[in-house]
């Protein structure tokens, strides 16, 4: 199920799948594998839940201090550099998909 989601997200992001194609693939995966794999207490992939319910299902708690999260980030990595790289890379990949010419 995770592979199918990653495949759809990446191909949709690159403009290689339409909304209809992505929805069709997700529905097929859920119909064929949903019961076998399961999703959060047997909930359907398409059923929305609140953040509080999702956090309870996953057994996570809010971060009490931002320093806890900051400590997980590698010291030499600048988050702004990562964001700039991702935005630049996405823009570069979308130009050929959108215009057909690089």
Structural overview:
- There is one protein chain.
- The chain folds into 2 domains: 1-62, no CATH class; 63-102.
- It is mainly alpha-helical and 102 residues long.
- The longest helix is centred in the last third of the chain and has 21 residues, at 79-99.
- 64% of the residues lie in helices and 0% in strands.
- The chain is flat and about 40 Å long.
Low-confidence stretches at least 5 residues in length (pLDDT < 50)? none
Compute the CA-based radius of gyration.
18 Å
Instruction: Please write the string of helix (H) and strand (E) elements.
Output: HHHHH
Molecular shape:
flat
Number of domains: 2
Number of strands: 0
Instruction: Please give the alpha-carbon distance between the first and last residues.
Output: 33 Å
Largest sheet: none
Portion of residues in beta strands equals under 5%
Rounded mean pLDDT is 75
The computed structural class is mainly alpha
Q: What helical percentage do the residues reach? A: 55-70%
The DSSP helix count reads 5
Topology:
Layout: H1 2-13, H2 19-37, H3 51-58, H4 66-70, H5 79-99
Descriptors:
mainly alpha, 2 domains, 5 helices, 102 residues
Give a nutshell description of this structure.
The chain contains five helices and no strands. It has 102 residues and is an all-alpha fold.
